[in-house]
């Protein structure tokens, strides 16, 4: 099945499918009760931004043989003074549960890793909930990522989290 999947950069038309994927994952009751267009509108704006500012942001989608998005990832190329270089911050990695285990997640992260290599950035970074199956199954570790033992992850919320 995985050879039927392809990775490409996201287009505006993928916004509805990406919104559907988030709803299928079901991490947020609030999001799942909103009209689809309310979920997909900000996604379309982010896709359009990734196209107009392609130096700063990349969104990849995994698509099936009909070019329908089954998964996506979103990476931001962040300039770091301390590193004297760039860090790729992967903010989202989501695959539709209906396409789970077909290799889409691996292909998406591999695409990000290859782009980081081409861009000659210092490193990639992401957060992964320790209770999530992806963490428990070592999704990132198996692809060579290192969990940082000495780094705490802090956030400062302006709005209530989705979930
Ligand atoms: C994690 C996730 C992106 C994996 O995508 P996928 O396309 O199913 O992954 P692949 O088919 O490439 O499988 C590779 C690895 O993903 C993990 N994986 C596979 N199915 C999974 C599932 N249902 N749930 C969690 N992790 C899964 C496993 O580690 C698997 O390796 P293994 O088969 O050797 O155990 C996907 O399950 C998902 O979107 N989960 C919900 C959102 C999430 O947790 N995102 C990542 C953290 S931000």
Summarize the structure in words.
The protein is an alpha+beta fold. The relative contact order is 0.15. Helix content is 33%, strand content 23%. It has a 5-stranded mixed β-sheet with strand order 1-2-3-4-5, sandwiched between helices. The radius of gyration is 16 Å and the shape is globular. The chain has helices spanning 15-25, 29-33, 36-52, 104-119, 133-136; strands spanning 6-9, 57-63, 69-80, 85-95, 123-125. The protein has one domain (2-127): Gcn5-related N-acetyltransferase (GNAT) (Aminopeptidase). The structure holds coenzyme A. The site of coenzyme A (COA) has 19 residues, from strand 4, helix 4 and helix 5.
Would you tell me which CATH topology applies? Answer: Aminopeptidase
Low-confidence stretches: none
Spatial gap, N to C terminus: 32 Å
Give the count of helical stretches.
5
User: Which structural class should the secondary elements be placed in?
Assistant: alpha+beta
The CATH homologous superfamily name equals Gcn5-related N-acetyltransferase (GNAT)
- Overall structural domain count: 1
The appropriate CATH architecture is 3-Layer(aba) Sandwich
Order of strands side by side in the largest beta sheet? 1-2-3-4-5
Q: Provide the β-strand percentage band.
A: 15-25%
Shape: globular
Radius of gyration: 16 Å
Proportion in helices: 25-40%
The main sheet comes to: 5 strands, mixed
**CATH class identity:** Alpha Beta
User: How many strands appear in the DSSP assignment?
Assistant: 5
Q: Could you give the order of the helices and strands?
A: EHHHEEEHEH
Compounds present? coenzyme A
């Amino acid at each position: 099945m995985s050879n039927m999947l392809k990775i490409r950069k996201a287009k505006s038309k993928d916004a509805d499918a990406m919104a559907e994927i988030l709803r299928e994952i079901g991490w947020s009751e609030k999001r799942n009760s909103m009209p689809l267009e309310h979920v997909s509108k900000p996604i379309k704006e982010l896709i359009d931004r990734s196209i107009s500012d392609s130096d700063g942001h990349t969104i990849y989608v995994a698509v099936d043989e009909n070019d329908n998005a089954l998964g996506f990832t979103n990476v931001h190329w962040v300039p770091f003074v301390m590193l004297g270089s760039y860090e790729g911050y992967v903010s989202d990695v989501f695959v539709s549960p209906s396409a789970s285990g077909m290799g889409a997640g691996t292909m998406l992260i591999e695409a990000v890793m290859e782009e980081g290599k081409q861009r000659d950035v210092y490193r990639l970074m992401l957060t992964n909930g320790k209770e999530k199956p992806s963490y428990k199954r070592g999704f990132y570790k198996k692809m060579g990522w290192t969990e940082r033992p000495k780094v705490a992850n802090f956030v400062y919320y302006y709005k209530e989290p989705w979930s």
